[in-house]
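Appendix B, Record 12. Input sequence as logged:
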Amino acid sequence: MPIQVDSAERRAAIADATVRVAAREGLQAVTIRSVAAELGASTTVITNYLPTRTALLVNALQQIESAWLDELQAAVAGDSARDALRRAMRVAVDWDADELLRFQFWIAVLAVPDRDAKVDRHLVDSTAAMRELFSKLVDQCGHPQATAAADMLVLVAQGAFVSIVETPQEWSRERLMETADAAVDAVLAGS
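Logged structural output:
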């Protein structure tokens, strides 16, 4: 009888291995073979789920962003729209060592010239999902220009990703929380 493997768990393990390979050796080192070696598995284990390098990259991005967006969604549950907006922004800029690896991966993928269209589409869609969440919250706060205010928050969050990767020693959790709160205060002042 064949061993039953949960597809979602396998894809998550492959994504983690993909990020680890990229962190250790650079994005160019991410191949089906290198990810299989990182997992201690055959290349067939990878290609059963993800047949191409592009699929590996998109899978890693999907896993990273899905977990992140789930965390954002959980942060906005309950309480007032203002409190939810503040919590969402804090979650958006918070980080730890694992998150740093994911930010590094995201930036490495962004830096690839002539990215595959599937990778581009995923990046655009994930940013749109974040913008939609912030826009909804800002609108619920009564801001007259919810889309522009949400864009500002998205830019602050994405700028935080870059800053954390560039100079993590300068961006303590406390400093990021202060920055997140200041961005939300600026938006709420316009409500």
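The mean pLDDT is 91.
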